[in-house]
Specification:
- The protein is mainly alpha-helical and about 210 residues long.
- The protein has a single domain, classed as Methane Monooxygenase Hydroxylase, Chain G, domain 1 (Up-down Bundle), CATH 1.20.58.
- The chain contains 6 helices and no strands.
- The two termini are about 30 Å apart.
């Protein structure tokens, strides 16, 4: 087995940044799709490609970990971090798939609002990840994590309002079921991004 030292340390940060950049790209595509609901199959196809790219990044990190004697942060946190980012991307992909499966023809306002919150959260996570390389940036990273938490709380409120509106207009049970699932998947994406932020917070405490 070939072991790596310093070059592998750099690679882990590279993989983190690739993962969050990939998530942000997927989130922006989903936002564009929900804002301007056109070329749906093509857009979902692009999100699918991004999701596959995310799986490859997780595989690369998982393969590199056992070949690395010295990791820049705790090995378990490395796995948790890249997995939580991938989980968020999986949720983005799940939303895109549901749009096709449930034959959605028009997009409701809560879904659009949640998509925007996802993009904002992904932007904050991407910026936080890029600050992990330098301890001098840890204070700014903490501020990004606080903002991620705030955005997740906003997502909870949008979900609550969206579900409340569905319940008050539930004449069509199929419409209720499909939009309930889509809203919940969108909000779950902000949860997964918050999970990644929690891992970063733990890294800051351990390495600050």
């Amino acid at each position: 087995m070939n072991f790596s030292f310093l070059p592998a340390e750099v690679k882990f940060y590279d993989y983190f940044e690739r993962a969050t950049t990939n998530l942000l790209e997927g989130a922006r595509l989903l936002q564009t799709l929900l804002d301007d609901y056109q070329n749906v199959e093509e857009m979902v196809g692009q999100i699918t490609e991004i999701e596959h790219r995310g799986d490859f990044i997780v595989h690369e990190v998982t393969d590199l970990l056992p070949r690395t004697l010295i990791t820049p942060i705790d090995a378990d946190d490395i796995q948790r971090l890249v997995s939580s980012v991938d989980d968020a991307l999986d949720a983005v992909y799940a939303v895109a798939q549901r749009l096709l499966i449930y034959q959605i023809t028009d997009i409701r306002k809560p879904a659009k609002r949640l998509a925007h919150l996802i993009v904002e959260s992904a932007q904050e996570l991407d910026a936080a990840i890029k600050g992990l390389r330098d301890k001098r940036q840890f204070n700014q990273v903490r501020e990004r994590i606080v903002q991620i938490n705030t955005l997740e709380n906003n997502g909870d409120r949008v979900l609550y309002d969206g579900l409340t509106a569905l319940v008050s207009h539930r004449e069509d049970i199929f419409d209720f079921i499909r939009w309930k699932e889509i809203y919940e998947l969108l909000e779950a994406t902000t949860d997964r991004i918050e999970d990644a932020g929690d891992v970063i917070q733990r890294v800051l405490v351990s390495n600050g």
